Each structure stands twice: as structure tokens, then as C-alpha cells.
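Sat 14:20. Reprocessing the chain from the morning session after the first attempt stalled halfway. Input below, unchanged.
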Amino acid sequence: MTAMGTATVGILGAGKLGTVLARLAVDAGYRVLVASSAEPSRISLTLEVLAPGAEATTADAVARESDIVILALPLGRYRNLPPASLGGSVVVDAMNYWWEVDGVRDDLASPSSSTSELVASHLADARVVKAFNHMGYHDLDEGPRPSGMSGRRAIAIAGDDDAAVEATQRLVDSLGFDPVMIGGLSAGRRLEPGMPAFGANVGASELVALVDQATADASPAR
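Finished this time. C-alpha cells:
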């Protein structure tokens, strides 16, 4: 078991982000399960090339066998996620709304809530945490460094379930990044496209400043 309480990392989505995260998790020593909307046989070659050691499987198997499940699929498909299968699971939402991919969706662009809160509302019994969404997949791929090493990059985390947040913090650290807690799940809004922290590939103190900048921008004028 690599990080306390987590042995198997499941990833739903076998695109660029999903395969990068799978490769990082394999390198960190986890058992890694990956599923997409395609049959496992159709993504197995992709994983052999881009994330050697990761196992292609079904979404049901990912939900059943994983200690942490990362969502790395287009946000517009979140209603296809199985609430019953993911009930009780720690689910890390790494998704963002892209109208070019998801289509123009008012429900995904509402300023009244974070998109992770929409996901959590759908997965009512899952323990949803926001992480891995603000840094580009190529930066994730090139950025992992050992704990304490100069220049280590940071990943922001937002969530309401303390135990799920702690598990995600350990996962982020083990994958080679400094975890930075920014608040409850609603705070994930500060990490979404258009916010100062979106796209951030910086250290912890700089990331905190960018998140705080979003907070200040949202504050009423005095």
C-alpha cells in the first residue's frame, strides 16, 4: 500500500488527462485501473503505450475495486456516472467545462455553484473532492518532484469530507505535488476556467495567492 489507506487508484476517462494521471499513479506504486466509455479491449493498447502497468477494465470494476476514483472524462457526461456504484467512494473530480467539448450548457456554466457541486449532487452518496483540474496535463506529466525538492509544484484541493480530502492530499503528495487545501467543495469554483488559478503550474505559495485573488475579485466592492 503506497499511501495510507490507498492501494488502488481508479480513473474514469482514458484521454490525455486520464492517461497522464494513470502513468503518474503507476510510477508512484499504485495499482491503477482505467475505464472509458469504450470496451476495455479498445483502450488496452493505449494504456500499454501511454501508461504501462495500468489495467484497462470496466467502469463498474473501477468503482468496485478502487480506493480512490478520479474523474477525467468530459464534464458534460457526468450524469452518465453511476451513483449507486460510486456510493461511499472517494471521488476526485478533475473535470472542467469546455463548451467546445461539452456543448453550450447553461447548467455547467452557472456562477451560483461549482461544477463539482453538480457532480456531488448527482453522486449523492459519493465523497467528492476537487483536484487535478487546474494544471494542464502536460504540466502534470512533466512536473512531479519528490517531497521537499526545490521547485515542487502544487495542486489545489477543495472538499467537504475531511477524510476524503486527507486521502486526496496523500494521493497528490505521492504523485509528486504539494497539496494545497483551499476550502470546501464550493471553493472549487476558484479553480475553474477563467479564474486566476486555472492553468497554474506554480508552487504552493504562488498558488495560494492566485486562489486568494479569485476570492478578492468575488468580494463586494467597499
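The longest strand covers residues 154-159.
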